[in-house]
Amino acid sequence: MKPEEAAQNAVLAGLSESPFARLRALLDTPSPQTEPTISLAVGSPRHQPPQFALDCLTENLATYGDYPPINGIESWQASARDWLARRFHITPEIYGALHQVLPATGTREALFLAAQIAPDGPNKKFMAMPNPFYQLYAAAALSAGATPVYMNAVAENGFLPDPSGLSDETLDQMRAVFMCSPANPQGAVAEWDYLDQWLARAEKHNFLLIMDECYIDIFDRRREASPPISALNVAAQRPEGLKNLMVFHSLSKRSSLPGLRSGLGVGGDEVMKQFLKLRMLAAPQSPIAAQKAAALCWANDAHVQENRSLYQDKIDLAESVFGTNYNFYRPEGGFFLWLNVGDSEAITKLLWEKGGIRVLPGAYLGAEVNGENPGAAYIRVALVDDMAEMKLALPRMNDILSAEGIK
User: Fold this and answer.
1) Beta-ladder partners of 248
2) pLDDT at site 32
3) At 242, which CATH number?
4) Orientation angle between helical segments 288-299 and 74-88, nearest 10 degrees
């Protein structure tokens, strides 16, 4: 290496830029004339958080003077376990050991660390994920020394990767498979048979199924009588139980508290032992005040219903504005619209320059496989602002797209 050359990290060199860094570069143009500008690009909930959680944080400021226990304070453990049993109608015995339910500083940190404890060995080299996908999955795989395998999640397969699409030879070399239900960005929900297929493959080929279920309490009106299930439901009925499974949940979406950085992980006895071991060495603890506020949130379902209703109302509005244009459909879960506009980057730029509206190009959420990026034709629209902003933004979007002849 020449003296003037800086040392480089191979993992970082293999990572793509953040979708939002790419978006800033794409829209590095003079500010549009349209006012107000509205961002529908970032999936950061903006509904009012529950006041009881904010009050709890204020009342417990003194606890920031203490190191918190990494496996959770007693009230957090009790509330999280009760929520899992109540929400998914499962017996607590399947995650009975103390280390099987652990707090995390948001699902991002937890998902990243989960990849680091996935089974390894000379013949274990892959980690698979849906395509398009939450970009953290690829970063976690590369950091764990694995090669990402991108499984297209497109309209033809209901926006969920086909479990039979990977050969036995590839599955034998699999370390982990990331799945998200409800899916980001498409809102598809994984049902029982689908999850059962992935769990069967995880057991047969000895890989870890890592389930990102952070949107599971944000679902459409038509699912009120049958809310999305968890992979925990299916694993609880299988002979191997949770052995090859880790599931992660978060209060970011459920309680509109992304800044609390509070989530939970639950899984099999051995994998959660390894997860705790790594977290004790390399992860930050969730502050005691945050755990106390989180315990109140996991114990309260009323604020979640109110939060969900706000999203449902905005999806109603979007349906009335877009109709069947842009292949609009009501997402089963989550708060994103996944609109087919033909060229995601060009349309993203058009909406910004003509209407002052920021959306996220689907191309930035996908990886190119065999010369095709399955997100390239789509834009992701985050319905996170209040209804007043949605009533400005969505009709304005539709007018701009219609004027361009896009349907």
Assistant:
1) 212, 265
2) 73
3) 3.40.640.10
4) 30
